[in-house]
Amino acid sequence: MKNIIIALVGLSFLATSAQTDTLKMSLQECVDYALKNSTSMKNSSIDEEIAKAKISEVRSIGLPQINGTAGIQHNLKLRDFFLTKNENNPFAGSLPNEANGKDFRSANLFQLPSSIDGSISFSQIIFSNSYLIGLKAAKTYAELAKRNTNQSRTQTIAAVTKSYYSSIISNERMKLFDANIARLDSTFTQTQKLNTQGFVEKIDVDRLEVTLNNLKTEREKTIQLLALSSLALKFQMGMPLETNLMPTAKISDITVSTNDIQNSKADYNNRPEYMQLTASKALQELDLKNQKSTYLPTLVFSGNVGLFTSANGLGNVITGNNFYGYTDPRSGKSFQSRWATYGLVQLGLQIPIFDGFGKSAKVQQSKLALRKTENNIAMFEKTVDLQTKSAEVNLKNSIITVEMQKKNMALAENVSNVARKKYKQGVGSNLEVTTAESALKEAQVNYYNSLFDAITSKVDYDLAVGNIK
Question: Are residues 361 and 433 in the same domain?
Fold first, then answer.
């Protein structure tokens, strides 16, 4: 893992050195960029498009359904007929009288072995309660997709905000390390000269050198953390990692105070997760209605029109050869074309009668799923209340800690200045200087850590009460 981090940092430095232009961006600009380019937001937008397509799919069920079919068929052997010989059967005249009243088998006299058939069928739902409920469910599904997008939006804003301020704080710590190193290096150089002149012992030089080396080591670590912070910010934004990004905000722009705390109960409707749950409940309610509606009849209007021909042989049915057109002298109807048409329309009513209690079981399952969703909503309301209170306490504690650590840092800086002045004037010891510098470094680290914790607590609080939109 350590090798991977070092490799990432190295790649970041190489990319930065290769990049000539620096992209300076404020927090709002970074957020706006992330809302357009982050993977989660892109996927949420795709989910919304899928939901719109789903509505079109469901709506299409209620529109006329038209299908066309065409085929060519050749029977290797036609089915024979089975008839009964009697006086009403004109096809049994060649059978002897003793066959009267008996069944007999005859060749197929009414069908030719080859045929071509093409038809167009259509159907239209006249009434289906399931279809009407399906339309409502599709719209609710689209609303759920929008609420999922809102959830991704708040998470993206929170992540970018934390990464942005983390980068700023790391950069500020770099400046402090540079200032501390420059100040201590000056004292170290002066002590080396005093040692050469015999005014101080070698151990005094060594103490300062150890402290200086520790500061330089911490600075190198901070450089790596700064690079990782920049990588994390660009990753959250969906920005290419090789981009040279520089936040424009300053450490003085960061303000966290008790004025940010609202002394009121969180509004559940401000939480995207709550809106997701209510949308899921609406879908469950529609599913329950749909299951109940399966007891209702369905009315469908349909029809079929077609064109066909038949011939004695596959070649003849394709070419039309061997067809004889004529006019029936009895009816006067002309049969000059080898193509014949047919058609039908029907109004179908499907009435559910008994399905072995299958519908009842589905209705019961839907009821239980709805109850489960209602329980989840009630549980989430309690969770929001707890999160809001916990986030409020954490934010208050973080603010107190920041104020205290800021005072400690100022005191430590004052002690360090006094220790160095006393040492230069010859009334203080080298040990006082190194101790004061170590205390100052620790106070600075504690302050910036507490400042980042306060920013994180503020973001978490805004998430809890639903302020991030």
Answer: yes
